[in-house]
Amino acid sequence: MRQIRRAAVIGSGVMGAQIAAHLANVGIPSLLLDLVPQQLTPEEEKRGLTLSHPAVRNRLATEAIRRLQKLSPAPLFRAEDAKLITPGNLEDDLHRIAEVDWVIEVIVESLEPKRQLLERIEAYWRDGMIVSTNTSGISINAMVEGRSEAFRRHFLGTHFFNPPRYMKLLEVIPGRDTDPAIVEFMREFGTERLGKGVVLAKDTPNFIANRIGTYGLLVTFEEMQKGGFTIEEVDAITGPALGRPKSATFRTLDLVGIDTFVHVADNVRQNVANDEERRAFEVPAAIQKLVERGWLGEKSGQGFYKRVKANGKRQILVLDLDTFEYREQKNVSSSALEASKQAKGAAGKARALVQGGDRYAELAWNIVKRVLVYSAEKLGEIADTIQDIDAAMRWGFNWDLGPFELWDALGLVETAERMKAEGLVLPQWVEAWIAEGHQRFYESSEGRITMPVNGKPEPIHVPAGVIDLAALKKGGKVIAQNTGASLIDLGDGVACLEFHSQNNAIGPDILSMIEKSVAIAEKDFAGLVIANQGKNFCVGANLVLILMAAQEGDWDEIDLSIRQFHRAMLALRYSQVPVVAAPHRMTLGGGVEVCLASSRVLPAAETYFGLVEVGVGVIPGGGGCKETARRVAESVGPDDDLVPALGRMFQAIGTAKVSTSGAEALDMGWLRETDRVVYNDDLRISAAKAEVLRMAETGYRAPVKAKAIRVAGRDGKAALQMAARGMWNGGYITDYDLHVAYKLAHVLAGGDVPANSLVSEDYLLDLEREAFLSLCGEAKTIQRMQHMLATGKPLRN
Ligand code: NAD
């Protein structure tokens, strides 16, 4: 079976280094090669090195790896994974590519150097080795002219977007001779292992996303100038109001680099045959002028915007295109923009804006209509399906809706009529599709979604294993439901408990659904998955309810809530069938406690996991402290000192540490060796389902209830408290932090009992509840909760 066990990345610049980092993220070691420097740096001279010294010869790659650890956002899941990347250079180490399964070329964007490099690579190429290029838009076929047929069969484009860890899009571009089995393999590998959203693109200038995206940006510029709009007006219209990121048009250009954009646009202009299109890709004089002045965006400190500090205040000025001077931004508002703000969902927002009836609505429409028609015209040329074009724009440009999805949202038929009335010519296939009576590009019936392919409706491609909870719910698969959560039948004997309260915060509704779900699963299912497809897995317990009760001094209410929380967590822990939690993105406080109560945890690659309760002046109260103590006791030998391991967890909870990835969550001490990261978020629920089935088939047994837990006791508590005092002495924590830390130490150590006492789970839960309740009675805890609810940030009072 084809596999990628090792890789070589050639070119250690912005993209090459980060691609190597992402390979390291998923456990693939790589060689990272670059040119040999021709000159010593002053530092190297000082150290007495010569140009033949390996440290000098490998300098480019070595420094690139070092930089990876400082880049923000972090390209590595865990800094230490950088050791999976081996630096080298193209003169001494190229032969080592013979050991790898995949070579990816990521050097300068220019045909000739890429061609020459591929010729050198072929000298070490062996049958079966995949070779790809990360070019943004140079012809794949042109690059391998002169290479052997066997080599060409193994060559293709794999175009990552920057930053590769975070941008979901991977364009896979087969060449004329690429073996279809290799294309299929890379599609699967890109999806399952690298966690990317893969689209198949054709070998045309700039492939899919950059072709449509660049066209869209140029059209936006043209319409802006035609209508006399300002830069901030255009950004207000082409951002979230239209279902696109906040960086909208011009802040995106500043981030990408205006010179890079010009380079990309030029590449299309020089390589398309059609004159009209060539004109469309001509870069306007104003943008050329920016490049000439070196105003390239963020990297040069100014572009369409400029950050300044005036009177001690930070400010972002905007470029006035008439005077070419920066000025203060003006407030942009209109009824159409307001309507879009009020509307729900990307489709609703875009509709409200485009149909809003004022001059901003008209600008939005004038931009959108041209992008929609252009995308339709390019179908067949740049991609075979509308789905590939839509996905490329969603994943590569962070649009909420791709062009055809947006067209459907605006109403396919009405929109087409309006376009024609305004003189646009629609591609024949769109006319024919509408003439056949279709109301949408994507049609759904009986749970199947189809789209036009060669004039006929054909099913959309869904990678194996993608589960869509919303579709299952629509399809009548809900077993039980309340305001906070639903239990959904995933098929094959597995049910999924989905949270869907506001921010997925845990309140009484979710807790009662947890108990109910376990009962139903034990009766009717092989096991239970806990996962959802919301923005975050769970931000913690519902603070509003706790705060209200605390302000009213209703201690019984809080006491009952904690007891209910504990009951639900124990139901999970002692469920007779396996429970697999599959968290993603923010998984905080109560969300972590749900994971700790589950039999297994499969976090997504992007999971930000932590017990952060001290930020609101309490300690974990849903079994988090008890589970921490239990796991620490289980992680060490029966005679080992508990304090070192307990101290690490105490510090993590005491400083509200949150992991920066799923992989880091595994390292924090709460999760077990059997827990593992799922790289592709779309496959997270099916991976959890498969895990449930595997556990059920291999004879899952619930944990033993009566098992006593060894605790650190009063000596351990004293040690933890002393550590906290050290932090306080050093000025790292406030008086109140210290107060909360003391309570935390008390609970984690098992209270005032002799060291190494054996205690029951219920005893630890009682300690947890008492400490939580007493902290709720403190004014500073109430202030912390109020502050968090008002600002979303912790208060360090
Ligand atoms: P970069 O300039 O940061 O890095 C290029 C690296 O290649 C440098 O380390 C350089 O030393 C090395 N190099 C240059 N000429 C070479 C040669 N002849 N032989 C071997 N090595 C050579 O560039 P980048 O931004 O990382 O882009 C690399 C490739 O990725 C390009 O094809 C680019 O179009 C593509 N790409 C870039 C982005 C992006 O946002 N930067 C996004 C997608 C794709």
UniProtKB/TrEMBL annotation:
It catalyses: a (3S)-3-hydroxyacyl-CoA + NAD(+) = a 3-oxoacyl-CoA + NADH + H(+). One of its GO terms (biological process) is fatty acid beta-oxidation. InterPro entries: 3-OHacyl-CoA_DH_NAD-bd, 3HC_DH_C, 6-PGluconate_DH-like_C_sf, ClpP/crotonase-like_dom_sf, Enoyl-CoA_hydra/iso, NAD(P)-bd_dom_sf. The keyword Transmembrane does not apply. Belongs to the 3-hydroxyacyl-CoA dehydrogenase family. One of its GO terms (molecular function) is NAD+ binding. Pfam families: 3HCDH, 3HCDH_N, ECH_1. It comes from Alicyclobacillus vulcanalis. This is 3-hydroxyacyl-CoA dehydrogenase. Transmembrane segments: none annotated. Residues 7-204 form the 3-hydroxyacyl-CoA dehydrogenase NAD binding domain. Pathway: Lipid metabolism; fatty acid beta-oxidation. Residues 207-306 form the 3-hydroxyacyl-CoA dehydrogenase C-terminal domain. Keywords: Fatty acid metabolism, Lipid degradation, Lipid metabolism, NAD, Oxidoreductase.
